[in-house]
Amino acid sequence: MALAGKRILLIIGGGIAAYKALELIRDFRKRGASVRGILTKAGAEFVTPLSVASLTGDKCYTDLFSLTDEAEMGHIELSRDADLLVVAPATADLLAKMAHGLANDLASTALLATDKRVLVAPAMNVRMWTHAATQRNSASLKGDGIIFVGPDEGEMACGEFGPGRMAEPAAIADAAARLLGAEGPLSGRRILVTSGPTHEPIDPVRYIANRSSGKQGHAIAAAAASLGADVTLVSGPVAIPNPPGVKTIRVETARDMLQAVEKALPADCAIFCAAVADWRVANEGDQKFKKEAGGLPPLSLTENPDILATVSRMGDKRPELVVGFAAETEKVIAHAQAKLARKGCDWIVANDVSHEGGVMGGDMNTVHLVTKTGVEDWPKMGKDAVAEKLVARIAATLKGRWV
Ligand code: C5P
Questions:
Q1: What residues make up the domain containing 216?
Q2: Residues within a 6 A CB radius of ligand 1
Q3: What pTM does this model have?
Q4: Which single residue of 45, 58, 135, 270 could bond 319 by disulfide (Cβ 3.0 to 4.6 Å)?
């Protein structure tokens, strides 16, 4: 069982999504974890302490100043005794308290008294989530190392639509499993993933970039971690959060990316999903190029290192399985096959980024897996599903090769 022997302290805040926290307790326990529940005063308006106690098989903790609770299991012990703290639902109020270090009830005190990792699943009305204060608090919590799962976008209990729905219990349990280094078919394997675009400076204020969002690469890193791999993600500048349970290194340029990749090796498998800029400015300006100087800036381009080709031809340090991506706008398969040979990698995941599909930046992808022995056409799927299928294939291949 993926979470066998792990101890989770679940803090249930006051929102309608609290009813899903009950299902989350069952999911955690099904995966082998033991769960202790803290219910906030507002949370108790939505679910009862009796439900929480029945499902955790323990008492439900509610009161900071309870003489019996404090004598048996004080607030410090509650967080000290856990491997992971999970806040679900994390209300706007709880996030605000956490961001500011307030501790005026049992939940916020346990959260302040911990040095364990904390996973939060926000759930609130869309306008509360998008409010500058909540966004500011979330950014500051992320800076403190708090891991976010969700919120999802969709229909909400208040009748509105948008981001703010709590992530589904299974997704929260998956994120917890990744954070706790759950066992899986990739346990003991090191996987390196590159993701996102690179930014190539023109001068101190301008750069060359591309439309890559990092969604596909980040999803691959997350999927590999859920199967138990030790994952390093080297990401260019993206607007999406670091995936939970993944060591993420943020870089700007192709040269930085190559350096970070080399440092992260050895690995059993490397997946190069980043849209690395092919060229950079050879004569980068030390100062901002000035329009007033007249004429056009004297830009000349030079080629960037090809990270995929470099790693594919590394000899001793070459990962056993090297996977490249090919974003093509025509003759997708033929170009991918040529690229496989040219770059020296084992597989190419090819996708057509030309048509109305909106692959760049979108959530869906249609890919073809090109190997030395053939081509597989995969149906149109979400980027998460592509990631899961690819990573499952990698797990099967690595297993076949060396175990
Ligand atoms: O040649 P092209 O850019 O189409 O190849 C795409 C593949 O090569 C991707 O896997 C991408 O991550 C990788 N690549 C790289 N370094 C570069 C250019 C591309 O790793 N400089």
A1: 190-402
A2: 194, 254, 272, 274, 276, 278, 304, 306-308, 324-326, 339
A3: 0.71
A4: 270
